[in-house]
């Protein structure tokens, strides 16, 4: 899709100056800017144009935020309508017509078992703020402090969200095994591996000597995104719902990245028919602008006024853009489109893997796709990950005008998160560029098992 020609393009020297000043001024914690040294100046749909005039196909999509791609007309029109109306842009948590329209549209998309008995809490502007609110909610409602979370999880960067994520430690958090066909923690994979993981959870909860703190809730991602694009088996999710319901443990579904059609259903829990007690939402619900909420069963709504607040929980532009996005995805059946196109892309990538032994696994759901790169020259049952090759593929992709992200426990999974508006032609271009980049990276990146040059 072509970008518009309304903004001036800075010369290459100007881009270099911007990047140099960024490296001097911004913190060492910056991430995407290190692997993607571009300066976006214009964008539309799948396409970004850099300050140097180069165009890129964006399969990062703001880490899944841009369900409709960049600057979709319905989003721009919704924002413009609010700006032209003279409506206030900042109103804390006061009721407004814009908020009412957003909430109505959001509730229309929820699993029916939740929508009929739900409350909504508007949080700070980021997904991690909504995770914090969800954890606070269930702890307050149950009077317990423990939390059940899963290996490989990622829920955000604030203290409580980090504690629930796979790489952090908190004595109140019990870490449970997440099913993983390719790298099964029990070495069997498939239904058997998922069944063992579920049984492990049940045993820990029912064993009075397990040392598990009384859980206030269980938080899980229906598809682990940053963990390496790992879809949870539907039967396992249903079993987790039974495990929690039978023990009066609220189930929290983190749909920050998986929501709004990304996985081929409007919400990823819809695949399994699971109705959680709490849903955490951000990213795409704001239509590209900052917005985060939790939706939960009314029985949990025992907060006192002011128990959870935030100055920027009334972002009117984000609510307008979000309502327009939700409606467009729903009315145009983009979730179904993501399921169809995603399955086709997965099949083509699996075909590519047959000719490239350094592709260990291709997995995903809808337009949330991961390609794990490995070193196949080992005696291990499952080859070890190859993060150096993944980084080389990312660089080669960028050189060919394709933006991709890396993830997984060892940063060896190339992730594709294209907008739901992706066309068949664009999908073909994405896969062609990826295949070309993979071949080039394989030719220049030694395998970790190679002995290297002799001395």
TrEMBL record:
Family in the record: Belongs to the class-III pyridoxal-phosphate-dependent aminotransferase family.
Biological pathway: Amine and polyamine biosynthesis; ectoine biosynthesis; L-ectoine from L-aspartate 4-semialdehyde: step 1/3
EC main group: transferase
Pfam families xref list: Aminotran_3
Keyword Transferase recorded: yes
Organism field: Streptomyces lavendulocolor
Gene3D superfamilies: Aspartate Aminotransferase, domain 1 (3.90.1150.10), Type I PLP-dependent aspartate aminotransferase-like (Major domain) (3.40.640.10)
Keyword flag Transferase: yes
Protein name: Diaminobutyrate--2-oxoglutarate transaminase
UniProt xrefs under PANTHER family: DIAMINOBUTYRATE--2-OXOGLUTARATE AMINOTRANSFERASE
Keyword tags: Aminotransferase, Pyridoxal phosphate, Transferase
Essential cofactor(s): pyridoxal 5'-phosphate
PROSITE patterns found in the cross-reference section: AA_TRANSFER_CLASS_3
EC nos: 2.6.1.76
């Amino acid at each position: 899709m072509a970008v518009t020609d309304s903004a001036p393009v800075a010369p290459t020297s100007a881009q270099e100056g911007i990047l140099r000043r960024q490296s001097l001024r911004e913190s060492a914690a910056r991430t995407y800017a290190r692997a993607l040294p571009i300066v976006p100046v214009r964008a539309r749909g799948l396409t970004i144009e850099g300050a140097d005039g180069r165009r890129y196909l964006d399969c990062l999509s703001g880490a899944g935020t841009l369900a409709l791609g960049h600057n979709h007309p319905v989003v721009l029109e919704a924002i413009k309508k609010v700006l032209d109306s003279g409506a206030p842009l900042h109103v804390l948590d006061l009721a407004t017509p814009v908020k009412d329209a957003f909430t109505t549209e959001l509730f229309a998309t929820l699993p029916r078992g939740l929508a009929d008995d739900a409350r909504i809490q508007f949080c700070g502007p980021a997904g991690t703020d909504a995770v914090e609110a969800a954890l606070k909610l269930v702890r307050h409602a149950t009077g317990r402090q423990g939390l059940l979370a899963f290996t490989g999880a990622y829920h955000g960067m604030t203290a409580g969200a980090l504690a629930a994520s796979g790489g952090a430690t908190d004595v109140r958090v019990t870490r449970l095994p997440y099913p993983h066909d390719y790298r099964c923690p029990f070495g069997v994979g498939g239904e058997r591996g998922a069944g063992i993981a579920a049984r492990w959870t049940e045993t820990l909860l029912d064993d009075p000597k397990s040392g598990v703190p009384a859980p206030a809730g269980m938080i899980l991602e229906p598809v682990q995104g940053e963990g390496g694009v790992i879809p949870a088996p539907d039967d396992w999710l249903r079993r987790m719902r039974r495990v929690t319901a039978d023990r009066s443990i609220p189930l929290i579904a983190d749909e920050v990245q998986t929501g709004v059609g990304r996985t081929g259903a409007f919400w990823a829990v819809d695949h399994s028919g699971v109705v959680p007690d709490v849903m955490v939402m951000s990213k795409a619900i704001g239509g590209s602008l900052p917005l985060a909420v939790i939706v939960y069963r009314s029985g949990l709504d025992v907060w006192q006024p002011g128990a959870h607040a935030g100055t920027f929980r009334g972002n009117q532009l984000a609510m307008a853009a979000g309502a327009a996005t939700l409606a467009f995805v729903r009315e145009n059946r983009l979730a179904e489109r993501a399921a169809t196109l995603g399955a086709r892309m997965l099949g083509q990538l699996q075909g590519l893997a047959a000719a490239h032994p350094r592709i260990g696994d291709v997995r995903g759901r809808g337009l949330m796709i991961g390609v794990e790169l490995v070193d196949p020259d080992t005696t291990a049952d499952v080859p070890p990950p190859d993060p150096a090759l993944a980084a080389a593929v990312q660089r080669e992709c960028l050189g060919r005008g394709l933006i991709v992200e890396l993830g997984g426990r060892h940063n060896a999974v190339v992730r594709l998160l294209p907008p739901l508006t992706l066309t068949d032609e664009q999908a073909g271009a994405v896969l062609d560029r990826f295949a070309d980049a993979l071949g080039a990276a394989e030719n220049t990146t030694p395998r970790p098992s190679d002995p290297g040059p002799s001395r």
